[in-house]
Amino acid sequence: MICNNIKSFVRIICLLLFILVFEGFFTKISSKEITPIQFEYVDPLEKVLAEASYFRPKEAISEVIRGENATLQFVVRSTDNITDLRVHVSTATNGESTLPLAKKGFVGYVKVGRSIWDYSRDRIVSYSGYYPDPILEQESINVVFGNTQPIWISVPVPEDAKPGLYNGKVTITGKNGEELFSISKDYSVKVYPVTIEETSLWVTNWFTLDADRLKWMNDGVPFEPFSDKYWRCVDKLAKKMAEYKQNIALISPLHLSEFKFENNKWAIDFSNFDKTVELFIRKGVIGKIEGGHIGARESHWISQFVVFVPNGEKDPRNKFDKLPISDPRAKRFYTDFFDGLMNHLKEKGWEKIYIQHIADEPIEENAETYTEISRFVKQAAPGLLIIEACHSKNLDNIIDIWVPQLDFMNKDYSFYNEQNKNGKEAWFYTCLAPKGEYANRFIELPLLKTRFIHWLNFKYNIPGYLHWGLNYWSEDGNPFDEQTLINHEGGNILPGGDSWIIYPKDGNLLSSIRFDAMRDGIVDYELFKMLERKDPEAAKSIIDKVIYGFDKYDNNIEQFRKHRKHMMELLSK
After folding, report:
1. Using CA atoms, how far apart are residues 95 and 224, in angstroms rounded to an integer?
2. Which of 25, 43, 85, 288 is at a distance of 20 to 30 A from 246, taking alpha carbons?
3. At residue 1, does pLDDT exceed 90?
């Protein structure tokens, strides 16, 4: 009796084990069936964090005009490791018409390791501290299981492209765990019969030509200023700027020139300045030459402004003394400098496109010394236009192109708007400020916030935009590592994305998803200007539904797409 009970008990245990084994086996099979590789389209205005996991299926389509880029974003994710992920994009066709080959890349992730204050309500929070930004131009990439990898595709649409719907395929291949795979998805580009050629919005991204930073275009290996390697790097920088519709170049005749004092007069060699300007003209950047600053604060933020005067040193970091403009040496030098510069600009045919900076960001506490220097320059070079990023409007009306910070533009809009109406100009700039709800280019902000910068240009009749940080990569850190910096003078954190918006790699320059959004915003501005000429009320109606104030916007991507589509449809009629 006892034996029979034991046998029955053993049979029950075996049956249970059998069920559990088979359940695990079928669960494993079922798991493979219901968790294949995720390969979905995501609007390129969405910043996809590596930990993101939910993607609804949607149509992959980009609706554009002729003369801009059609951008698409796909994401790939798996519960296994993917190795050697590759992307092939077939040519988009419309009957016998085709679009140029697509440029494809993988969106890389970079670290934002410092917190800033005054975060916006729509700030993107990454619990890993890593954010999508650089567009990596490489043939393949590995994806760790559980992570999401965005794919970035950009199709240039020629100005003479035939309007209509173009169709193609995006195919991904690789190895998922131990299994090879190949998955394809359709994509479309709808081209409207509207054409953008040259852009009219003035856009300047300040860049550095300092060899200590350009070395990152040479894998971190230093090289000499003005060497062949140096000029190749500058050439690539200018090419990238032109590609992204930058039309002003900050080039300093003061810091690029050589000086000799002989026969009681300063002789100036403008050779390196000329070579730089001519290079940027050839690449198609220059609509204006933005002459670099001739002065700076004597020391701290509220100290007075002084000017740079050559002292005979050869080291570019020590070749100038800082002197007040009232100093006889300063007066002697800048009288000769501006006399020589103005004559040289006329000889080169550049005098009508040249504008001059004095000293950056004057405030109330040092406005008097700023205007003193500016008045001296105006006397030394009559007709020279002064441009300045400024924190004060109380500058004796000496500036010709005012560039207040965006929040100052908001605060004193009536003053700056009058400048645009009365023969002068007023642009705006962003940098590490303003924060809060204002549009800016920080990595932690939604891409719409970057694109809306140029919607603000149209909404408020502001014909130009300035940003200081195109390529101010840290001298002692890899640009793909920590993205924030510290301004030790003021104790300010430079937010991730403030100091650079392009990345150096393998001798080339890579764009970022922010730089693409900025370029597309410049095109949006031109669309608004075209629509304003055709139907001012329609242009106003669209912009007013998206931009409610200087720091109030509709941040819904689907609504944004509808409004932009409506604008293209109106222009197509």
Report:
1. 53
2. 43
3. no
Q: What letter represents residue 20's amino acid?
A: L
Crossing angle between the packed helical segments 447-459 and 513-534, to the nearest 10 degrees: 30
Residues 291 and 353: their CA atoms lie apart, in Å, by 10
Evaluate whether 75 touches 48 at the Cβ level (below 8 Å): yes
Q: Which two tokens stand for residue 99?
A: 């679009």
Cβ proximity of 55 and 182 under 8 Å: no
State the pLDDT confidence band at 491, using cuts at 50, 70 and 90. confident
Per-residue pLDDT reduced to its tens digit, 302-339: 999 999 999 988 777 789 999 999 999 999 999 999 99
The answer to whether the beta carbons of residues 232 and 223 sit under 8 Å apart is: no
CB 107 within 8 Å of CB 152: yes
Residues 185/41, Cβ–Cβ less than 8 Å: yes
Strands (E), 472-569: 485-487, 492-494, 503-505, 508-510, 547-549, 552-553
CA–CA gap between residue 311 and residue 319 (Å, rounded): 6
Encoded tokens for 203? 């856009």
Which of these ranges, 135-139, 411-415, 420-424, has the smallest mean pLDDT? 420-424
How long a stretch of residues is the chain?
573
**pLDDT score for 160:** 97
Q: Is the pLDDT of residue 187 over 70?
A: yes
Per-residue pLDDT reduced to its tens digit, 368-396: 999 999 999 999 999 999 999 999 999 99
Query: Residue 564: which of 551, 548, 546, 537 has the closest Cα?
Result: 546
Note whether 291 and 357 are within 8 A (CB).
yes
Task: Quote the CA–CA distance of 555 and 573 in Å, as a whole number.
Answer: 28
The pLDDT tens digits for 249-265 are 999 999 999 999 999 99
Query: Which is nearest to 403 in space by CA: 358, 352, 455?
Result: 358
Confidence class for position 475, pLDDT limits 50, 70, 90: confident
d(CA 153, CA 331): 55
Q: How far is CA 399 from the centre of its chain?
A: 27
32 pLDDT exceeds 60?
no
CA separation for the pair 108, 83 (Å, rounded): 16
Q: Stretch 559-571: mean pLDDT, rounded?
A: 98
CA distance 468 to 483: 15
Plot region of 120 (φ>0 → left; ψ -120 to 50 → alpha; else → beta):
beta
97-98 vs 179-195, strand pairing mode: unpaired
Measured CA distances, 528 to 248, 294, 514, 544, 566 (Å): 21, 37, 21, 12, 11
**Mode of pairing for the β-strands spanning 305-310 and 295-297:** antiparallel
Pairing of strands 401-404, 385-390: parallel
The answer to whether the CB of 71 falls within 8 A of the CB of 62 is: yes
